[in-house]
Amino acid sequence: MHLYVPTPPVQHFPIENNTPALLDFNKEMKSATMMMRERGKLIYKVYKAITFSLTPLIHLHLYFRKFRGLEHPLRWTERLGRPSLRRPPGPLLWFHAVSLGEGRAAIPVIRRCLVERPDFNILMTTTTLSAFEVLKHQLPPAVIYQFAPLDLPAAVDAFLSYWKPNVVFLMESELWPNIVMATSESKIMLALLNARMSERSFKRWSAPAVIPLIALMLSKFSLITPLSTTEAIRFQLLQAPPFIVSVSADLKYCVGEIGASTNAMKGIEDLQSQLSFRQVWMASSVHKGEHEVMLRVHKTLVQSYPKLLTVIVPRHPHNGLDFAQASKNLGLSVAVRSDDHKLTSETNIYVANTLGELRQLYRLMPISVIGGSFLSTLAGHNIAEAMVAGSAVLTGPHVGHFAHMVAAIRSYNSLSVLQVFGETELEKALHELLSDPISLEARQRAAKEGFYALSRGVLSHVCIQINWYILRLLR
Question: Where in this chain does the record put each 3-deoxy-D-manno-octulosonic-acid transferase N-terminal domain (predicted)?
Answer without folding.
Answer: 75-253
